[in-house]
Design a protein that fits this description.
The complex is a heterodimer of chains A (about 130) and B (about 150). Chain A is mainly beta and about 130 residues long. Chain A has no helices and ten strands. In chain A, strands 1-2-8-6-5 form a five-stranded mixed β-sheet, with no helix packed on it. A four-stranded antiparallel β-sheet of chain A has the order 3-4-10-9, with no helix packed on it. Classes of the chains: A mainly beta (about 130), B mainly beta (about 150).
Chain lengths: ~130, ~150
């Protein structure tokens, strides 16, 4: 066996306010990265395509939702299971001012990438000191 | 064995699928998971369908070209690499997604035809299908008059 660098993270079910829809919802694993100009988020949502993702930023709360496609489970009978499937939900409060119109979202191989440009006033500014 | 039927109501079918998947299954019939059992990346579900058996694994963020599938007799090994790509001059606030190399081997039951396996990867879910061997498929026997 080759080196095993990754381990499985068990899915965490989301317990939130009484949901209006039945069915389990899981918390996707997220990486958050910050550069001077942007915030980046990478969200693991296997089984979710670009049309089933919903991203919303309102009142400083970023909400990420993804719905799984079930068509691929038709005519199957599980005989051994290690993970369950369900929709994804995660919320973050964003303290940085974000340029809402400049937000970009893309999906690739079941990962959602979010690019949130900081608003002009939230970017670090270099102040030049002059001698006189 | 009941096959999961896709109903027209998505909420209802999500619930019934989740209920099916939540049932506790010990090692599937004829499979040998060996040291590569529960908890080894990637997480795996096994399903049967009319034509054979299917392995499904969650590998978000791994492009199909980074996945290698190798068979050795009845043993199938899935390996690959999950890589970080982050722009320069920044720092992580949160790192929940584990990255690196993985490899997992499973020994298949003898009635599957490993040479006819097919694999697809869609939205971070890898599906490998193994059809039943020709000689294990159900056959009609004609009754002759003596």
């Amino acid at each position: 066996m080759t080196d095993q660098e990754i381990s499985v993270r068990n899915k965490q079910e989301v317990n939130r306010e009484e949901p209006t829809r039945s069915g389990r919802t899981y918390q996707p694993d997220v990486d958050i990265y910050e550069t001077p100009e942007r915030l980046w988020l990478w969200v693991d949502m296997p089984g979710v395509d670009e049309n089933s993702v919903n991203v919303d930023l309102a009142n400083g709360v970023l909400t990420i939702e993804g719905a799984v496609a079930l068509d691929d489970y038709n005519e199957l009978a599980p005989v051994y299971t290690e993970y369950n499937v369900g929709n994804y939900l995660r919320r973050f409060s964003i303290s940085t001012d974000v340029d809402v119109d400049g937000i970009k979202a893309r999906t690739a191989n079941g990962v959602l990438e979010l690019e949130l440009p900081k608003a002009e006033k939230a970017r670090p500014r270099k102040i030049t000191v002059t001698a006189h | 064995m009941a096959l999961f039927r896709f109903s027209s109501d998505p909420v209802d079918s999500l619930l019934s699928l989740q209920r099916e998947l939540a049932r506790v299954f010990e090692s599937p019939l004829g499979f040998e998971l060996g040291p590569s059992g529960r908890g080894i990346y990637p997480a795996m579900n096994v399903f049967t369908e009319k034509s054979g058996t299917m392995l499904r694994m969650e590998v978000p963020g791994v492009p199909p070209e980074n996945i290698q599938i190798e068979t050795h007799g009845r043993t199938v090994t899935v390996s690959g690499k999950r890589e970080v790509k982050a722009p320069e001059n920044g720092s992580f606030h949160r790192r929940e997604r584990s990255m690196g190399e993985f490899s997992r081997s499973v020994q298949l039951p003898a009635d599957l035809d490993v040479s006819q396996a097919e694999a697809t990867c869609k939205h971070g879910i890898l599906t490998i299908r193994f059809p039943k061997k020709e000689e294990t498929k159900p056959r009609q026997i004609a009754v002759q008059t003596a």
